[in-house]
Inverse folding.
């Protein structure tokens, strides 16, 4: 269930989305390509983000293998990603909605898009969410994307 926001909150989130690629705690947002594998190093207290446009009902398998340190995987729509990024980049308080797989070391996660649209895949090495992983060090992560359309 997504929370309804007023017009001011939506405007703030849009501003955050426009500026998030230059924020200290993140890397530029990358577009994922099905069948591709990449290795990324995520610094302590940072996150790495991929985006994808999906049609409702399409499935994407995301395979994660870390260097032995746990990481959190979250998938969000643009509005919730804007909220998440604002919280992360200001050390603020708040909540966001996401599909989660927390404390991953080596796992596969399959996501089915509930609606047409853009989705953000976040590999999180920060203290949020409070019930997730926080390695306290940089993490090397192999990420593979596979589509099932």
């Amino acid at each position: 269930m997504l929370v309804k926001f007023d017009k001011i909150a939506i405007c703030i989130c849009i501003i955050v989305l426009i500026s998030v690629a230059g924020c200290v705690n993140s890397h530029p947002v990358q577009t994922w390509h099905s069948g591709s594998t990449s290795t990324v190093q995520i610094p302590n207290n940072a996150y790495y983000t991929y985006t994808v446009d999906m049609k409702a009902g399409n499935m994407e398998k995301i395979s994660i293998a870390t260097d032995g340190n746990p990481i959190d995987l979250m998938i969000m729509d643009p509005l919730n990603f804007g909220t998440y990024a604002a919280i992360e980049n200001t050390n603020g308080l708040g909540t966001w909605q996401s599909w989660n797989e927390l404390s991953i070391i080596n796992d596969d996660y399959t996501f089915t898009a509930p609606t047409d649209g853009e989705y953000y895949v976040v590999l999180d090495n920060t203290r949020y969410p409070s019930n997730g992983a926080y390695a306290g060090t940089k993490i090397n992560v192999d990420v593979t994307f596979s589509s099932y359309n």
